[in-house]
Amino acid sequence: MFQILPDSLLLVGKVIRPHGLGGLLRIWSYARNNTSFLDTGTVFLKLISGETRKYTVTSIRPHKNVFLMELEGLTSGDEADKLRDAEIFVRKEALSCEEGEHFWYELLDLKVYLDTGEYLGSISQIISSGGNDIYVVKEEKKEIFIPATYEVVKQIDLKNGKMIISAIEGLLDLNEV
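-> structure tokens emitted (177 positions)
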């Protein structure tokens, strides 16, 4: 067992169950693609007991609508079954984004303003949808759903904790209940 600061880790997936008898894990990935696991090299599995274990990823490949992950030293289905339902974490600094992309954890709690200066609220949740993500902006009991598109999101300023959006015609009207 080892000590690691939880703020330095990012949740990227979950073990569903073993796959076969050779120690492969069937996993659900929250990452956009499987290279996130290989690029980081090391994953941390938080078991349902609360114990955290460190592993080296030796391979990962798509399988139907999930991924199959092979971890160094994990060689049997019985060993793999002990990891069932474990959360998969990687070190935040091991991942990188392309220009103009951001991790969800960076966007949560950003204060959202219209390009006119009007404050709308803070991002409380991000919903993954087919074409683009949707930012749920909450202020007291009011929620506004903002599409994460270049047409709407004009500026993301992580240093100052804010996002500037342009309200395309009807956007704020659609969110009125």
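The helical segments are 35-40, 77-81, 104-107, 171-174.
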